Amino acid sequence: MTNDFIYTTYIKTTPEKVWAAITNPEFARQYWGNHTNISDWKKGSEWKHSPDEGKNIKMIGKVLESTPPKRLVITWASPDNRADESQVAFDIAMVEGMVRLDVVHSKLSADMAKGISFGWPLVLSSMKSFLETGKAIDIMAIKGGCGSAKGQAA
Q1: How many angstroms separate the CA atoms of 22 and 85, rounded?
Q2: Could you tell me if 86 and 63 are in contact, meaning their C-beta atoms sit under 8 angstroms apart?
């Protein structure tokens, strides 16, 4: 039995737009509850997830692999508990005229697994809606908001 969280979605868009949705702070802000992902996205670089351009950091990590627009692998931890570090892989591929996005969040503690299993579906559904329609889901309005449980993807 694995403790990995695996989420696959198909999005009517391009790999470049999915890559930008994940890595461009202003793009991410549109669908990720006004939060941004900040980094230069080069292997070995640090990244941070923040609602206010890095002043209030919610998640941190390092870029382990970066192959735009196909694959991004990062470590993922709360700045308050760096020892509870996990790993997220984003694999982006064209399939039958649409993008298949596979997100695998691995090396999860029980606490982290609980939070991200609620957060990732909200965030990724919002990204899909935003890329396909131009309108994101208000993930902060969903019962408790995306950031209400420790370790969630927001």
Answers
A1: 20
A2: no
Place of tokens 């793009």: 27
Confidence (pLDDT) at 153: 52
For residues 90, 145, 98, 76, the Cα torsion angle rounded to the nearest 10 degrees is 0
User: Which residues lie closer than 8 Å to 13 by C-beta, 6 or more apart?
Assistant: 98, 99, 131, 132
* pLDDT single digits (tens) 10-58: 999 999 999 999 999 999 999 999 999 999 999 999 999 999 877 899 9
> What is the Cα–Cα distance from 17 to 59, expressed in whole angstroms?
23
Q: Which distant-in-sequence residues (6+ apart) come within 8 Å of 97 by Cβ? A: 12
pLDDT for residue 145 is more than 70:
no
pLDDT score, position 80: 94
Show the tokens assigned to 139.
Answer: 């993930």
Do 7 and 120 form a contact (C-beta atoms < 8 A)?
Answer: yes
Alpha carbon distance 78, 61 (integer Å): 9
Give 136's DSSP letter: -
Q: Minimal CA–CA distance to 91: which of 19, 11, 12, 2?
A: 19
Q: How far apart are CA 76 and CA 30, in angstroms?
A: 21
